[in-house]
Amino acid sequence: MSAPRPEQDQHVHDVVAIGAGPFNLGLACLADPVDDLDVVVLEARDQVSWHPGMMLDDATLQVPFLADLVTMADPTSRWSFLNYLKQAGHLYAFYVRESFYPLRREYDDYCRWAAEGVGSVRFGQEVVAVEHDGSAYVVSTARGDVFRGRRLVLGVGSRPRVPAAVEHLLGVDGVCHSADYLTHRADLLQRRAITVVGSGQSAAEVYHDLLAASPEHDYELTWLTRSPRFFPMEYTKLTLELTSPEYTAYFHGLPADVRTDLVREQRSLYKGISGDLVDRISDLHYQLRVTGHGPRTTLVASTEVVGGERTPDGVRLDLHHTETGEDFAVTTDGLVLATGYAAASAPPAFLDGVRDRLVLDEQGRFAASSTYAVDRSGQEVFVQNAEEHTHGFVAPDLGMGAYRSSVIIAAITGREVYPLEKRVAVQSFGVPDHLRVPS
Ligand SMILES: Cc1cc2nc3c(=O)[nH]c(=O)nc-3n(C[C@H](O)[C@H](O)[C@H](O)COP(=O)(O)OP(=O)(O)OC[C@H]3O[C@@H](n4cnc5c(N)ncnc54)[C@H](O)[C@@H]3O)c2cc1C
After folding, report:
1. Rounded CA gap, 302 and 300, in Å?
2. 418 CA distance to ligand 1 centroid (A)?
3. Which residue's CA lies nearest to atom 52 of ligand 1?
4. What is the pTM of this model?
């Protein structure tokens, strides 16, 4: 049921969801047909805009279209990607295209279509403070509006992260994080030298885009990564089984120190570059070599950025090679820091007013329960994509969004509105019961 226009102070929603990224949009779409569940979603932006700085024309999702907002929970939902294609008149073209992987641009448009259609998203509503008046959460926005809800679902996403050693360079002319790449692209193409720092998909997409443009431009192109190699994301099927409800439950049940080690060890499961793009970069190099446009480019792995400063010609990056132990430097006048994102694993400042109701670990991070609850009662405040440290690498994975929303809806309604799969993998995680030594 779509939420009525908000009355300033009186109406109490069942849920006030903060942030209309894919995860809370999924929650709103799954709540839509549930008569006794009144959800309102508050979004700071004026419309859905999914990673606009990386909306490269040929970029695709890294997950199949089934990882849309709703299908893994409810394949009959009107808010599915397939229904969006039908409404947009693209279904037959998508069928002929025969790819499981939507273009990033159409996924963005799909999210906008769902957000505008579902009726429960309030745009231009940046949440700035949350209090509790004894019966409900009182959520205030920068616009001066007030929304009330019995529960909160936090889905504010992650923030661009840059290495501390070069944080001071952000804002310098010619320097940007990959999150703003397309805003800076035209200026970067006019530069004498461009350096890309990072080992993930975004770094590779930016490098590939600049390499492809290099024949028309005369820049020196450098790609540096701290990783020991330009490694592909691990995508084999038994590994993909870790993107599952039972692996998430297994991970959540592990001791905290084991979880911390696993998150680090499992980097190749969610960081890294799609194997296809790694090969496309190599093939493009070959093509440019044969067509006599061999680019002036340098790719160096095992390289840590340890410092940097402005120079009359741009910026100088101080570097350390982690295998040879050598220190060296690169001077560049274009710099793209494709150095990832930091999840909002600790309460944002706007939750200060209800901090006493939250459960945090010794590092001040959300101590999320198995049902993604982060408040003392385990019934009131939930997180989406802020729980990598408790639930594992699948936290930002679009493929698990609908499942997590289903768990949260079950926790709120007290019933399994959408079936929660208990076991989907062939393999067992931990010691299988039938092999356990009886105690
Ligand atoms: C370029 C890129 C491509 C990606 N591609 C994939 C992919 O193909 N497959 C995959 O599985 N994962 C992918 N990811 C990872 C992840 O799925 C996405 O980051 C996803 O957008 C996370 O969704 P979210 O809902 O947590 O947050 P976000 O999409 O970041 O949305 C959070 C929303 O909260 C709003 N907000 C923040 N603070 C407030 C506030 N105080 N008040 C109100 N609103 C607020 C923001 O404006 C934003 O709209 C990608 C990530 C990036 C950066």
Report:
1. 7
2. 24
3. 51
4. 0.95
